[in-house]
Design a protein that fits this description.
Blueprint lengths: L2 E19 L5 E21 L3 E6 L11 H13 L4 E7 L10 H16 L6 H9 L5 H6 L2 E5 L4 E4 L7 E6 L6 H7 L11 H9 L3 H6 L2 E2 L2 H7 L2 H11 L4 E4 L6 E5 L2 H14 L4 E6 L3 H21 L1
Parallel strand pairs: 1-8, 3-4
Antiparallel strand pairs: 1-2, 2-4, 2-5, 5-6, 7-10, 7-11, 9-10
Helix pairs in contact: 1-2, 2-3
The structure holds 4-diphosphocytidyl-2-C-methyl-D-erythritol and adenosine-5'-triphosphate.
4-diphosphocytidyl-2-C-methyl-D-erythritol (CDM) binds next to strand 1, strand 2 and helix 5.
Pfam families: GHMP_kinases_C, GHMP_kinases_N
Catalytic activity: 4-CDP-2-C-methyl-D-erythritol + ATP = 4-CDP-2-C-methyl-D-erythritol 2-phosphate + ADP + H(+)
Organism: Holtiella tumoricola
Length: 309
């Protein structure tokens, strides 16, 4: 195998709490993360000439060692002591610098893809360990699904899959640097912390009503102070029928959970046409259990087919 194509899915934070600050500036978190189906497509090809080459479909996105996928590939080659040539093509759909872990997910896909391409058989845990050195969200992007994330985001406890939910993403026409949001946060000034443990229980009993009405993100106040239009988008989403709406990660993307794809699509038209937002997507929550069930089924079918011969 010389080429592999992977889906690098984004994420939303259903809750995000900051519980401490480390000497190196990083923050201790407790947050519930959820993979969404909106994805970038990553194609990795082995090449004859040694080195890492990158291409992507956005004119302004780095194509050199500034691209996070370069760092992921370099880390993998260093860890595995492999000397090889790699070409990475990225087709971006996930908005950049948006709070949706677009870059982190690309990096995660590169680690997973190279592991398959070179047959190195690293475990998921080993890949996640490599991943955290590239970015705090990378381990979750390797794990995927629904999870409680602690530490700086890398201590992950998988949670039961959520029932499929319709998600609308609306990004104001601005980009926000994650570092600047964490820098501006004053932990002592946090007014309301999300009830993370109660939220975990609600996920366990699949209580959608609780899940849509008890989301909370302590970074919201910080980013909204910088860009008040985030609050307007949140309120518009509720007015347009969202069961709940919140900023994802450090922002500025706002997501809404809608009762149907139809209502999410109507609201999307409003944000695109009436508010002039350029990056609006209707997507859904990624169900890991369903995906793994499908894979088991495919393996079984493959086995049957070959045993019949
Ligand atoms: C906001 C979230 O997306 C929520 O899921 C993540 O916490 C951010 O994860 P990320 O973008 O992968 O983070 P990194 O690329 O490792 O770090 C970006 C910047 O965010 C800050 N950062 C990140 C994670 C963390 N637990 N504490 C932090 O203070 C650091 O100052 C760092 O300079
Ligand atoms: N493959 C990539 N995809 C997206 N951004 C990249 C990539 N490589 C480098 N970057 C740089 O990383 C920064 C933002 O990354 P990213 O899109 O992961 O942020 P984010 O949406 O805020 O994610 P997170 O929720 O993890 O903070 C931008 O400055 C961008 O130029």
């Amino acid at each position: 195998m010389d080429t592999i194509i992977l889906k690098a899915r984004g994420k939303i934070n259903l809750t995000l709490d900051v519980v401490g600050k480390r000497d190196n500036g990083y923050h201790d978190l407790r947050m519930i993360m959820q993979t969404i189906n909106l994805h970038d497509t990553i194609t990795i090809t082995k090449t004859k000439t040694e080195g890492i080459r990158i291409n992507n479909n956005l004119a302004w996105l780095p194509k050199d060692d500034k691209n996070i996928t370069y760092k992921a590939a370099a880390k993998f080659l260093e860890e595995s002591n492999i000397k090889a040539g790699i070409y990475i093509d990225i087709f971006k759909r996930i908005p950049v610098a948006a709070g949706l872990a677009g870059g982190s997910s690309d990096a995660a896909a590169v680690l997973v893809g190279l592991n398959k391409l070179f047959g190195t058989h690293y475990s998921k845990r080993q890949l996640m360990k490599m991943g955290v050195e590239i970015g705090a969200d990378v381990p979750f992007c390797i794990l995927r699904g629904t999870a409680l994330a602690e530490g700086i985001g890398e201590v992950l406890t998988p949670l039961p899959s959520l029932p499929p939910m319709h998600i609308l993403l609306a990004k104001p026409n601005i980009s926000v640097s994650t570092a600047s949001v964490y820098k501006a946060l004053n932990i002592a000034e946090i007014e309301k912390h999300p009830e993370t443990d109660d939220y975990v229980e609600a996920i366990k009993r699949q209580d959608i009503d609780y899940m849509t009405t008890h989301m909370g993100n302590v970074l919201e106040d910080v980013t909204i102070k910088m860009h008040p239009q985030i609050e307007e988008i949140k309120q518009d989403m509720i007015r347009m029928g969202a069961l709940g709406s919140m900023m994802s990660g450090s922002g500025p993307t706002v997501f809404g959970i809608f009762p149907s794809k139809y209502e999410a699509t109507l609201a999307a038209e409003y944000f695109k046409n009436k508010c002039g937002l350029r990056e609006v997507h209707v997507t859904s929550t990624f169900c890991k259990a369903k995906r793994e069930g499908k894979r088991r089924h495919e393996r079984k079918r493959y086995k049957h087919k070959h045993e019949d011969k």
